[in-house]
Structure formats: C-alpha cells, structure tokens
Predict the structure.
Amino acid sequence: MAVVLLHLVILMKLFMLSCGEFQRFDEKIKSDGSLSIFVVGDWGRNGNYNQSQVATQMGKIGEELGIDFVISTGDNFYEDGLQGVYDNQFQQSFTDIYTAKSLQKQWYSVLGNHDYRGDVLAQLSPILQKFDSKWFCMRSFIVNTENVDFFFVDTTPFERKYWTHPKDHHYDWRNVEPRDQYIENLLKDLDLALKESRAPWKFVVGHHTMRSVSDHGDTQELLQELLPTLKANDVDLYINGHDHCLEHISSRDSPIQYFTSGGGSKAWRGKFTPNADKLRFFYDGQGFMSMKITSTSVDLVFYDIFGTNLYQWSMNKQLLTVM
Ligand SMILES: *[C@@H]1O[C@H](CO)[C@@H](O)[C@H](O)[C@H]1NC(C)=O
C-alpha cells in the first residue's frame, strides 16, 4: 500500500513538473464571440486620490460594456500591502470601493512591489475569497479563453534593487528566494505555456513596466530577462501598472505593444522621460482601460475619472486556418 502511494506521489510530482508551475483558469466568452474586460492598477488607498471616482466610472462603463472580468496589474494595497488576512484595508480599499453590480466579476490580480512589502501570503490566501468572492490573486498563472490567453507574471522578484537595496522597506520573499532560481523556473514555465497556447491572441500581464516614460521608466531586468521570451513566442501585448499613468508604447523592433494602466488612484503628474520606443499615448492622471477582444480584433480604450474616452486603439489579425 505504502509503495503504491509513494509511486502515486512520484507520478504526480513528475506530472506537475512536466506541466510547469502555472495554474490555469478558464473564462467563457460571450455568445456573440467577444470578451470585454477592464484593466486597472495601483489602486488601494481607501478611496483617496480619486480611487473612488475611478471606481464609479468603472461601474458605469462596466455596465454598458458588460465586463466579463477585471485585471488588476498590482500594487493592490498601499503603502505596504496587507498586514494579514484580517487587515481592514482589504474591505476599505477593495470591497467597499468597487461596489457597482457590473464589477462583481472575478478580479484577476498580480502582486506589485508595494504588496511585497506586506504579508504576501495573506494576499494570496483563499480566506480573502471568503470575504469577497471577486478577489483572486496569485503570483503567476494563466487565464484561458477562446479568443485570448492571459499569462500573468510575478515581476517584483525580477527587480534587483529590491533585493540588494531595500532601503528601509522589508520585502516578503517567503517561497521566492533565492531570486535567480525563481526567475529561471518562472521563465521556463512561461516559455512552455506560451508554446502550448493555441489562442488567437497572447497577452502577458505583469506589475512592472517594460517600457514607460513616467516616473519609474523602463525596467531593465524585464527588458533583458523577460522580453526575449515574449518576443520568441509572438506575444501581442504586455500589460502593466507600476507607473501611475495611462500609456501606450509600440516596440520598434517587434510587433509587441506595451500598455500601462496604473491610474487606479494616486497619479504622477508632470513626470516624463522619453525612451527609445515609439510613444503613442500618455496621460499622467487617473483612469483605467477597457479591452474588447474577438478572435480577430482587439479594441482598447483609456478613460479618465469622468468616464471620458481619452484614447482608443485597435488591432486585427487574420485567423490562420489549419488545413
Ligand atoms: C482627481 O482628478 C482630477 C481630474 O483629473 C484632478 O484635477 C485632481 O487633482 C485629482 N485629485 C487627486 C487628489 O489626485
């Protein structure tokens, strides 16, 4: 009996290794073949800094668009994540803010650097889903839909200065350190998952910027270590927060488009440093982004706190028919 059990355990371990570490979740598209989502980042400030105004507009526009789910690009709770699963901030900055009926959908969230300054295991705990069932947060995972596969990547461990120069902050590296091994496994799993993807579109979501003209600017570690995997696997978009603005930048040497949606509360007005890629849109106030995705098209809109459509952008691709 014990021997059989042991074999089972080994078989399961092998199975899990060969499938990579990323867990997968399925979301259905609408009967008309489309999927509508919101992307918002850098928000949890008890409603302050226009967080509540952004939430109100998300509620209204979410109703019009029929949002299927929401993506949070991280820095979910300021300044230092959650202090535990019973931290009131969860209710005050999330449950009590995003109250509109249209927003009671799954919120797929990644962790930001500010989340890593608190109790990360609390933010990842299923107990939070008992308090508010729309909450969902993991380090790296995949959401599969018929039109697009979303690859959520834990980007905080990439940035070396959090490890070497944490200043007076403490980063919760439990289950992460050592850095290099963690990154190596993550990239291997991501590469495998991207290669297996059969969806018409492949979008990668992380907290940190790859390309940005705002306060933080480009993240060199992501350009050097993560971007090659995205380029090698024909990823269409990289979506992030971290810089508290809304922006669209096109890569000059690949088809990849970079979208920052980090305007969920406090904004960094007046910060601007150009980079080498092509800046198409930049707004240094608060807001959020919607995406409507079919198997052949993506329509993207940025909104401000008044619900004004600030910018829109579309891309199309021919479906390749497999003979
Ligand atoms: C809220 O948004 C308005 C409109 O963009 C802006 O004028 C105001 O400064 C913002 N408030 C804060 C606290 O950022």
